[in-house]
User: Fold this.
Amino acid sequence: MRDELPPQPAPANSPAVPSASGITSLSDQGPRAASPVHVVGDPSIAVVGHGGQGPFSILPPMQDRPRVLVVDDEKFIRDILADFLGMEGYEVRTAEDGQQALTEMSRSVYDVVISDLKMPKMGGIELLDEIGRRNPNVLTVIMTGFGTVETAIDAMKRGAYDYVLKPFKVEEVVHIIQRALEKQRLSAENLRLREAVSLYKVSEAIAASLSLDEVMATVCDTALQEIRADFVSTWLDDGEGGFFERNRMIAPPRGSVHPHHAYFDPLSPEPARVEGPLVSTDPNTEPVLDDVDADVVRAHLSMDPMLIEHGVRCQRFFRGGSGKPAQSVIAVPLRAGGASPRLIGWILAASFSPGRRFDEGQRKLLSAVGSRAAAAIDNARLYEDLKATFKQTIQGLARALDRLDRYTSGHSDRVAMYATMLAIKLALPPELVEIVRQSALMHDIGKIGCVLNLNKPGRLTQDDYEAFKRHPSHGRDILEPIKFLQPLVPGVHLHHERWDGKGYPLGLSGNEIPLIARIVAVSDTYDAMTSDRAYRRALPHEVTIAEIERCSGTQFDRNVAAAFLEAIEELREQKLATGEDVPE
Ligand SMILES: [Fe+2]
Assistant:
């Protein structure tokens, strides 16, 4: 019953282990459990039982224990070291000479090898040299009897970490191994620190960015490259007590350059915009990845900012099922908000590759990225909120203006719809389509500055008309002081310019007129003609398109007008098919 073995340190009166001549016998060991060494297969390779794996164990789980290989031709020494080191929480295996040790090391990874010097077949020095060649990260400790101190020193010169002289007390060996592992841990951390310096530049880039997309992309890239994760998923709070997955990136398959990237837009009804497949096209070779279980991750991070788990223990952070099981996972909280920071999200990185586990250094690295990114994410979201609020205010104004009289009600929204349709038809990139849409929505915002009734029956007086013609300039004056609305200005300011130069307010012609303004111009005209006005009834669709065709090359850019006519027919067909209203 190994579960009952108390995982205590070796007793103070633990035995001195005999030299080859034998000084101490097993009977000196005092009361302790029967030897936990089980001989497996090859009788000379022994495996220590899994002491302390029961429900009350204070030992780390098997897979987290440092691994030690004891090499000695004396079975007694192998057994007693395996026994005591096993009780200290190490996972120990033994080999009876250098050759067996190398065979064992080719099967599993070891942190420390403790070896006798004089053994048949292959001695300690030869083994040391081989380890130096094959596994330079493994620390070696040499055991030797009196009279061979010179050789022990030689071993140190050849790269051994330390030596012990026989006879020794087991605590001495335990102490040396603890020190060796500590050294190993420190040098690994040192390496990570050096990586952190390179990360500094990344975090500077994060801090300098006001774009949430940019910040999130940098965070994901960093996690994939610096942490060498297979999968990274970022989550943000939705402002209503919940969290949503903002970005997900999967390391590229071998040989490809770009990570597979999924971008989740919480404002969009579409579930995700995916660049590259999230899963391989062949579901048999590359199963779908399990989804992150946000509730479990959140519950953990709310209590404890440290989250690093391996093997079966990390699978509870995923909604298990058909997906590839995670082998190792790190999550770090994103906290923002000054004196009493709140959880605004987290970054989760996972390894799905068997045998590849994250270490504490990698968790610290990700944590550094997270703490840097959190403030930037908070700022970017505040900035975006601010922008959204500004835009909503202006758009609200534009719509309110439309509603001032029944004739122009819904005009701005319809012009925005036609302009968006046209921008897509002209194959503009999505960010420009959005600028066109917003600009069209606000194109008549300047009418706010025209104190006159534009919809009074009868014709406008010359004075009325002159005042009306100032609305594009008023629109520019309203938008221009607001930096992030500046891209919308050309569409607002110049939507009454004409291709032949006879428009206003500047009288620009041809390609002098920005494309965005040419798009808004034709969209505005189509809606104005197909809507009722105070002074006339709406014109039929056919009459309107004939007029646009007639004015193509004079009032309108020929290419833009042609694209509009094509697109408007497609839009009408779509709308008719779904039973929506269209101009007659
Ligand atoms: Fe206008």
About this structure: The chain has 16 helices and 18 strands.
